[in-house]
Every structure is written in structure tokens, then in C-alpha cells.
Amino acid sequence: MQWILQEFEDTHKLAEALDRLGIPYSWHKVVPFIGELIPEPVVADPSAVVMFGSYTLWRNAAANGYRPGMFKLRPFVEEKVWHPYLLNGADALFLTLREVPACLADDGREWFLRPVDDGKEEPGNVKSAGEIIRMVERVLALDEDEIPAGSLRHDTLLMFTKPVRILREWRLWAVNDRIVTYSLYKEGSRVIHRHEIDDDALEFGRRMVDLNPGYSPAYVIDVCRTEGGLRLLETNCLNAAGFYAADLTKLAAAIDGLAYD
């Protein structure tokens, strides 16, 4: 597998793991809004290339026919087998940005929101209805050709759900339908990165992966403990997700072992 890395703090951690494994890689910068790489990579086999960095790299991967390139995901809220286990999504309110002003009341209510698609236009977070409406109005005031690639657009579909108190949050990395590493990343409101996971949370994550075989060759799945038990928070593109305290040597070895025709 040929590894193409964009310069970030997390990708430098990944590079250290690749060095330990003796796996070669190359460094590149990305031209904003265009997606071209500097320097342009010399690719021996487009069917054996993997890229790590910003989510917008998927455009470069698609344009050049790289496989796997980026592990782009179907929206997790569309995966019916996961609906009984979702923290947010199964009973969510779904609105495009242009629908928000007419459909969301400015009543002081708080909402958890995130884009439905596996993008990074807006991270999952809690905002008041008024904050959401003002954010949306700023976007709608722009002509669509003024909006940079990778930003919220008039037709971006968002999901809105009731905020839930979360006690602990973990990120798990799945490769070939198997959890290969994990990390704690939050306790209550405190961000804490440790290479640890509760036994039942690890088993829950494995069960979620087993329920949906073939969802993607590689992805991250975030799970959490609430007062009502363990829940599935979301899935994310593995190539552009934070590594926290994952075992990157195990992760890199698993990804490098993926076979593509």
C-alpha cells in the first residue's frame, strides 16, 4: 500500500508508526478549495493507495482513481441495523439548511446537530435554536458559488436531536470488520485521551461492527456510556478522524494489509 500523508499533528504520529513498521510514505500539502497535492505524488499503482489528512482529500482520491484512497462512508443514520442502538439519529429531525428558518422555532430549546453525510462541514455539537438559526442565516445570505468547498451549503442535510448527558466516550477503529484499537476521549465534559476502554464498551463496539458487516473496509465508530446504558454515537471517515490515544502501530499494520484489486 502506498501511503500519502497531509501535514498535521496527528499524521506525524501516524508517520512514527509507519517508521516502526518500515512502511514508506510521502508528505504533501493540499491546495485549498482545489484539492491538488504539492508535490504531486508519484503513484505506482492507483489501486493500492491510502491517504490521511483532511476530509477534502477524498476529492483528490476520486479524481485520480485511488483505491482505497479515502474510506468514504454511507451516513450511519441510514443503517437500519444500528437504529435500536443509536444515541442520536433514529428519531431525529432532518432538515436542509434552507428549511431551518421555516421549520425550527427560535424558542430557546437546545439541539444536538450534525450533518447527515460523513463530512466535516460542522462538527457534532449542541447549540440553542437561536444560535442555529443565526448560523444558518449567515450561510443562506451567501450565493452558493461563494461558499468554499467543505463548508455548510444551502442543501446540506442536518440532523437535530435532544441532547443527552454522556458519561464517557470512546473511539474504536474497525478494519476488515474487526476492532483493531481504541481510545477513551472524553469523561463527562473533560477531554481525556487514554488508551483504555471498559470491557462492556469494547464488547458493545464489536457487536455494532458484527451487526453491519461490510459497512466499510475501515472506519471509526464512536460509542458512549449514558445513564441509560451504552449507545452508538456516530461513525466517521477513518482517514480524517483524530487518533487520540489509539495504538497506531496496530492500526497502520491492519490498513496496510488490506487487499485491493
What share of the residues does DSSP label as strand, in percent?
25-35%
Span of the ends, CA to CA = 12 Å
The helix content, as a percent range, equals 10-25%
Uncertain stretches: none
Largest sheet: 5 strands, mixed
Query: Mind telling me the C-alpha Rg?
Result: 19 Å
Organism: Rhizobium mulingense
Protein name: ATP-grasp domain-containing protein
3D structure, described in words:
- With 261 residues, this protein is an alpha+beta fold.
- The protein contains 6 helices and 14 strands.
- The strands form 3 sheets. Strands 3-2-1-4-5 form a 5-stranded mixed sheet. It has a 5-stranded antiparallel sheet with strand order 12-11-10-13-14.
- Helix 1 crosses helix 6.
- The radius of gyration is 19 Å and the shape is globular.
- It starts with a strand and ends in a 5-residue tail after the last helix.
List the main descriptive attributes of the protein structure presented here.
globular; 5-stranded mixed sheet; 261 residues; 5-stranded antiparallel sheet; ATP-grasp domain-containing protein; single chain; 23% helix
Topology:
Elements: E1 2-6, H1 9-21, E2 25-30, E3 37-38, E4 49-52, H2 57-64, E5 68-69, E6 93-96, H3 100-103, E7 110-115, E8 125-128, H4 129-140, E9 157-161, E10 166-175, E11 178-187, E12 190-194, H5 199-211, E13 218-226, E14 229-236, H6 248-256
Parallel strand pairs: 1-2, 1-4, 4-5
Antiparallel strand pairs: 2-3, 6-9, 7-8, 7-9, 10-11, 10-13, 11-12, 13-14
Helix pairs in contact: 1-6
